[in-house]
């Protein structure tokens, strides 16, 4: 049976868009569900492993107060290993600042190279076994995590 690489690419792109929608519009309350139980989420500051650590990261961010963020996805490239394993590499531009919209427009606070190692579970859902963001450019304002 041939692997449907285009379908897998589309599924991973939908996964990525849903993840960042949750982070940007819902404080990342469901972000942990996008990872495997032992998934590792590495930002430019720290690695967090497992649902509790990822959930805690976003809960701590929300506890600090109002923030506006938009994670923009560019140059999305997928390498399919098989029907249940794939890697996505892409570029993220992060616009974010504390406060309530509308805020003053500034350059992105981070442009990073992201690598997602993805696995399809027995339930048919794709999840991140790991996500690593490697900063390429940093703005003058700090990122939150």
Q: Compute the number of helices.
A: 2
User: Structural class, judged by helices and strands?
Assistant: alpha+beta
> What's the number of extended β-strand segments?
6
Low-confidence stretches: none
> N-to-C SSE series?
HEEHEEEE
- Work out the strand percent: 35-45%
Q: Tell me, rounded to a whole number, the average pLDDT.
A: 94
**Biggest sheet, spatial arrangement of strands:** 2-1-6-5-4-3
* Helical fraction: 10-25%
Shape: globular
The biggest beta sheet, please?
A: 6 strands, mixed
**First-residue to last-residue Cα separation:** 42 Å
* Radius of gyration computed on alpha carbons: 15 Å
Give me the secondary-structure topology.
Blueprint: H1 5-26, E1 35-42, E2 47-49, H2 51-63, E3 67-82, E4 85-98, E5 110-120, E6 126-138
Parallel strand pairs: 1-6
Antiparallel strand pairs: 1-2, 3-4, 4-5, 5-6
